[in-house]
């Protein structure tokens, strides 16, 4: 695929705490693919804080909607980006989330896959440090399941992982439109899109070579998302020794010790 421009779409609901770091990380990634044009579109969905203003200050295009629906937000962001670019041909759409930061080589690696003939690229995530979200136990439980299929460190085989994350994916605008784009789903809109891309026979790369860091919080924005998964792994009624520094989340979900259970 001949890439003419890149659009990065970021849905956000009350993400004033994270949006600046997110957009700045995208800007760094964009610098690594220059002079290729990169446009970042932040969709402020039902925001009651200054998410949109902060994103605009950092140079992102912003769109405000009132849907409280991540699938609709991603779809609106793509439409806005394609309107800005005035074309579908040669456009690569990169997706991440407002509570995430992308690595400097994020776009470089996606574009490399696209130029090798892939219509979509599915990347992996890393949870942010425990001090920003889930306790160490929940993180370790999550990671144990997440990396179960990853080859051993001494194995040079690339990890074709089974995961799908709206926080780390890319797709050609042509393939995106061919399958109808994001559906207005409140959750799993990324899985739904990938299922349709797969069914339509589009070539999809699954890679761990440009992981995105995402907040490991226990109270998220989308239902049945990562936050809900981490909450399900948190053991408030059992005893686990935490060696990490105190986590603010523990004030809501205190870890019980034998002394407090007596």
Automatic annotation (TrEMBL):
Region (Disordered): 243-262
Domain (Glycosyltransferase 2-like): residue spans on this chain: 8-179
Record family assignment: Belongs to the glycosyltransferase 2 family. CrtQ subfamily.
Keywords from the named record: Cell membrane, Glycosyltransferase, Membrane, Transferase
Major localization class: membrane
Function, as annotated: Catalyzes the glycosylation of 4,4'-diaponeurosporenoate, i.e. the esterification of glucose at the C1'' position with the carboxyl group of 4,4'-diaponeurosporenic acid, to form glycosyl-4,4'-diaponeurosporenoate. This is a step in the biosynthesis of staphyloxanthin, an orange pigment present in most staphylococci strains.
Membrane-crossing residue ranges in chain numbering: none
Pathway this chain belongs to: Carotenoid biosynthesis; staphyloxanthin biosynthesis; staphyloxanthin from farnesyl diphosphate: step 4/5
Pfam families found in the cross-reference section: Glycos_transf_2 (PF00535)
Keyword flag S-adenosyl-L-methionine: no
Protein name (record): 4,4'-diaponeurosporenoate glycosyltransferase
Cellular localization per UniProt: Cell membrane
């Amino acid at each position: 695929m001949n890439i003419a421009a890149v659009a990065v779409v970021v849905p956000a609901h009350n993400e004033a705490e994270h949006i600046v770091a997110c957009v700045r990380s995208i800007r760094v990634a964009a610098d690594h693919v220059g002079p290729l044009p990169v446009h970042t579109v932040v969709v402020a969905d039902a925001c009651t804080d200054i998410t949109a203003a902060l994103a605009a200050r950092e140079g992102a295009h912003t769109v405000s909607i009132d849907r409280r629906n991540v699938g609709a937000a991603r779809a609106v962001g793509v439409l806005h980006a394609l309107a800005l670019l005035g074309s579908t041909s040669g456009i690569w759409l990169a997706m991440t989330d407002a509570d995430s930061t992308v690595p400097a080589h994020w776009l470089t690696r996606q574009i490399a896959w696209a130029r090798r003939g892939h219509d979509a690229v599915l990347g992996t995530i890393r949870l942010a440090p425990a001090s920003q979200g889930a306790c160490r136990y929940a993180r370790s439980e999550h990671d144990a399941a997440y990396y179960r299929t990853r080859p051993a460190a001494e194995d040079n085989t690339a990890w074709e992982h089974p995961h799908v994350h709206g926080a780390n994916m890319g797709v050609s605008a042509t393939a995106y439109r061919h399958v109808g784009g994001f559906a207005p789903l409140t959750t799993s809109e990324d899985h739904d899109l990938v299922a349709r891309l797969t069914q339509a026979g589009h070539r999809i790369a699954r890679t761990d070579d440009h992981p995105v860091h995402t907040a490991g919080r226990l109270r998220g924005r989308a239902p049945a998302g990562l936050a809900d998964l981490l909450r399900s792994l948190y053991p408030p009624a059992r005893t686990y020794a935490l060696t990490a520094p105190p986590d603010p989340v523990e004030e809501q979900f205190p870890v019980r010790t034998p002394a407090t259970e007596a």
